[in-house]
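Researcher: Quick test of sequence recovery. Tokens follow.
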């Protein structure tokens, strides 16, 4: 019962958190989330240690934290809302005006969950338990890349929506390209490093030759697909800002229909590597097809700039730098030596991405210049 109460108390938090994001109070929301997450974990340890080492005590603490989290989010949301002379009341007509958008979002969410889990459902029935374990391990590492892209979506989607509502397409286009270049700088260096140095990274992490041998190629493919998926997050945010859910909904629907037989056939022929290849194919189709369809309707004329300056040039620079590091990697290095080699290569790859993303490069140089002037004074 306590578990159900804790879950029920967390449900309104999503509503209040969405309101804070819409008001562009991301820093405040992050502060609430971090503080309460710390209390949730550390407090649970103290309760089990000092009060009562029982499951009931643990879930009772979760209820308290869930109540505090939702309460703080609600309080700060109401305080952040602009003052109004009208009394607050429920407006059913507002829900009616956005029901198509809400239905589209719900459909996209459901289809996205299916797409993310479809491979595991099929593989659990086709592969041996051992190979499925290797695939799951590689999938966990690859999907961790989304932790870098999701915060950028949360920060920029409300701003995109505001600019669309104001009809300020010129500023929107500048922000779209600037943020897309930032996404490339954030996503591409770690993805390419992991893809090219999957053997060394897995060896350092797992210290298991068998795990490395069975997982490295799967990880390389999955991380490539996840990176392509990350690059599509901001174009997706742009579509949502315009209230256009139909493109992604139907694209995901077609993908679900095609992926079931494709994953089965590729897995039957090539094992887990075949399933990972399907993930690359899916996200490559998003980049190659979805972007072209989107820019026919939204920010027309900006597509080539996205492919070139925002993504293409940083991609080539990071790939060339990381590939050079891979080619020059000495044979027979110790795990410690491999760690430092990969770390230095990753740093150089990040520098290459920054230098080849024009707007990010200018921002970094300006900040370096300001820091130099401040040190001079």
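Model:
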């Amino acid at each position: 019962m306590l578990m159900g109460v804790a879950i029920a108390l967390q449900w309104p938090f999503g509503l209040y958190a969405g309101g804070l994001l819409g008001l562009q109070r991301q820093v405040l929301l992050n502060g609430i989330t971090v503080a309460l997450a710390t209390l949730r974990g550390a407090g649970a340890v103290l309760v089990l240690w000092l009060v009562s080492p029982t499951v009931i005590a643990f879930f009772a603490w979760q209820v308290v934290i869930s109540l505090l989290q939702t309460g703080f989010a609600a309080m700060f949301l109401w305080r952040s809302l602009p003052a109004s002379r009208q009394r607050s009341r429920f407006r059913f007509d507002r829900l009616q005006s956005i029901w198509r958008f809400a239905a589209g979002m719900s459909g996209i969410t459901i289809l996205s969950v299916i797409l993310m889990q479809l491979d595991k459902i099929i593989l659990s029935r086709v592969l041996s338990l051992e190979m499925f374990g290797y695939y799951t391990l590689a999938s966990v590492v690859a999907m961790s890349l989304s932790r870098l892209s999701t915060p950028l979506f949360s920060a920029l989607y409300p701003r995109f929506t505001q600019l669309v509502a104001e009809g300020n397409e010129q500023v929107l286009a500048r922000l779209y390209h600037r943020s897309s270049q930032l996404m490339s700088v954030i996503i591409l260096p770690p993805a390419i490093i992991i893809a090219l140095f999957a053997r060394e990274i897995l060896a350092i992490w797992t210290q298991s030759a068998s795990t490395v041998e069975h997982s490295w190629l799967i990880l390389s493919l999955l991380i490539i697909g996840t990176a392509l998926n990350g690059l599509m997050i901001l174009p997706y945010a742009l579509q949502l800002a315009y209230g256009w859910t139909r493109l992604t909904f139907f694209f995901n629907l077609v993908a679900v229909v095609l992926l079931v037989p494709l994953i089965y056939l590729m897995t039957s022929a090539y094992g887990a590597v075949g399933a990972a290849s399907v993930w690359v194919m899916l996200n490559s189709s998003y980049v190659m097809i979805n972007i072209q369809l989107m820019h026919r309707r939204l920010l027309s004329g900006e597509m080539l700039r996205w492919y070139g300056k925002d993504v293409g040039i940083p991609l080539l620079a990071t790939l060339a730098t990381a590939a050079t590091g891979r080619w020059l990697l000495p044979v027979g290095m110790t795990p410690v030596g491999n760690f430092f080699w990969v770390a230095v290569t990753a740093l150089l790859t990040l520098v290459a991405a920054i230098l080849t993303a024009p707007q990010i490069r200018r921002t970094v140089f300006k900040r370096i210049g300001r820091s130099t002037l401040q040190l001079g004074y």
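The chain has a mean pLDDT of 85.
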